[in-house]
Specification:
Elements lengths: L7 E4 L3 H14 L5 E4 L2 H8 L16 E4 L8 H10 L8 E5 L4 H10 L3 E4 L4 H18 L6
Parallel strand pairs: 1-2, 1-3, 3-4, 4-5
């Protein structure tokens, strides 16, 4: 896969949730520049050009990060914390896409700078609609800051 010009970095460890999300994004036309990684460690490797992503251009970042909260190795909160602490990446919108609706998780994510926190709907039609709307809003309607 070509790692330049990735618009959406999708970080999700659940194979079923990933397939459902990718299908919904595909229906909306947002998968041509999507990279799915299976955990927070891979997400950080991508963002910081390490491991299998070492040849990636370190000056190109995704337009949007869809980030699961609870993952092995490195959690979504840890990824969020690093992204928002890095001056080169802090303006990238990060949408937490998780099954956790626990108050402390939600509060912590917003404290760290999450742009949105979406609890995965259980019913697949609602989930697909929510994903399409996320793609439309963050990839088409939202205006990024001019740095």
């Amino acid at each position: 896969m070509e790692y330049e010009n990735i618009e959406i970095l999708f970080v999700e460890d659940s194979v079923d949730d990933a397939a459902l999300t990718i299908r919904a994004l595909n229906k909306s036309g947002f998968t041509h520049k999507l990279l799915h990684v299976k955990d927070g460690a891979e997400a950080l490797d991508f963002l910081y050009c390490k491991g299998i992503f070492s040849s990636r251009n370190p000056n190109q970042f995704p337009t949007l990060i869809l980030l699961d909260l609870k993952m092995p190795k490195v959690s979504g909160i840890q990824v969020l914390e690093q992204v928002k602490a890095d001056k080169r990446m802090k303006s990238i919108p990060v949408v937490m896409l998780t099954s956790s609706n626990e108050g402390p998780d939600i509060e912590r994510c917003f404290e760290l700078g999450a742009n949105s926190y979406i609890v995965k709907p259980v019913e697949s039609d609602n989930f697909s609609k929510a994903i399409k709307e996320i793609g439309l809003y963050w990839m088409v309607l939202s205006q990024p800051p001019h740095l």
